[in-house]
Specification:
alpha/beta; 434 Repressor (Amino-terminal Domain); Rossmann fold; 13 strands; about 45% helix; about 15% strand
């Protein structure tokens, strides 16, 4: 691959003449234009993406940030968003970060590179974003809200997710349902647990939450409360709980049913048996696309449907 300056030297012409041919501007005869284009193809010339966007007056790159750890679900989510943005001819530039400082630095780098927008999964709730970053680059925040101008927060109704999980398990006869979740403070974690607690009380049951998950804590909770079902915050926790219970000789789903959340394609390919709730990645991807077109999106984020597989059964008791 060669630069436009190298191409000009090959053609024996000025770089200005070559640029006129490459960008279809007037002031060059058709034969010379064609000779330049033929040599450009022969030598694999490709315009610099940023220079091409500046010349066209467009910004086609969208920055994306995900946590570096436990990122399988986030990768699947961003891939769905990438597919939606490709319909507009936009590229998604994905970065994984390990902490809040790296998150802010990467976001500032996206702004300096004149990205069309940034789609981010922040390291914590209510992270303040500098006005200097968002002034010319809108930010779409997923899973956790950020503070700042031109910031949009997209999330399903996680309280409803918790309520729907309990309603599904109750319909199958389960009453003693243990919620397995994370100890860290995050909007989705808090709201999903809130929905679980509200639904359990509405059914006259005592809500019991286990956070964080460990083998000793889970087996102790099973011994003391004798749950017939676990509602896990996500599929990774469901898989971890399945392994702990299996090692203790507890049969799934005969003794205890297990319900997860997410149903990301990569995880489902690795663990196809877990009954789960489908996170609305398609709705979120299309909303991102419409927001980045500066439209008022009409599409709403739907509730999470149950994907029935092998880890949840009716409870006959």
């Amino acid at each position: 691959m060669i630069s436009s300056l190298q191409l000009a030297r090959l053609c024996g012409l000025s770089q200005g003449t070559v640029d006129r041919a490459l960008h279809n501007r007037p002031g060059i005869c058709p034969a010379t234009r064609q000779r330049i284009l033929d040599l450009a193809r022969k030598h694999g010339y490709r315009p610099h993406p940023l220079a091409r966007e500046l010349l066209a007056g467009e910004r086609n790159t969208v920055g994306a940030i995900i946590p570096a750890l436990n990122s399988l679900f986030f990768l699947d989510l961003m891939n769905e968003i990438r597919n939606a943005l490709m319909q507009e001819g936009w590229r998604l530039f994905l970065c994984a970060v390990t902490d809040e400082n790296e998150f802010q630095e990467t976001l500032a780098d996206f702004a300096a590179r004149r990205c069309r927008a940034a789609i981010v999964i922040p390291p914590r709730d209510h992270l303040p974003l500098p006005a200097s970053v968002t002034a010319d680059m809108p930010v779409v925040s997923l899973l956790s809200p950020c503070q700042g101008t031109r910031v949009t927060f997209l999330t399903p109704d996680e309280v409803m997710t918790g309520r729907d999980a309990v309603a599904y398990l109750m319909k199958l006869g389960h009453r003693r349902i243990l919620h397995v979740t994370y100890a860290r403070r995050a909007c989705a974690i808090r709201d999903r647990a809130k929905g679980y607690r509200v639904a359990m009380r509405e059914h006259g049951q005592i809500p019991r939450v286990l956070a964080p998950l460990s083998a000793s804590a889970l087996l102790d909770a099973v011994r003391r409360h004798q749950p017939t079902a676990l509602f896990c915050h996500n599929d990774w926790l469901a898989l971890s709980a399945l392994r702990i219970l299996a090692q203790a000789g507890i049969r799934i789903p005969d003794d205890i049913s297990v319900l997860g959340v997410d149903n990301s394609p990569t995880f489902s390919a690795l663990c196809p048996d877990i009954t789960t709730m489908q996170y609305p990645v398609g709705d979120i991807a299309q909303l991102c696309r419409r927001l980045l077109r500066f439209e008022q999106p009409r599409l709403t984020i739907g509730r999470l449907p149950i994907i029935e597989r092998r880890t949840v059964v009716n409870y006959p008791g």
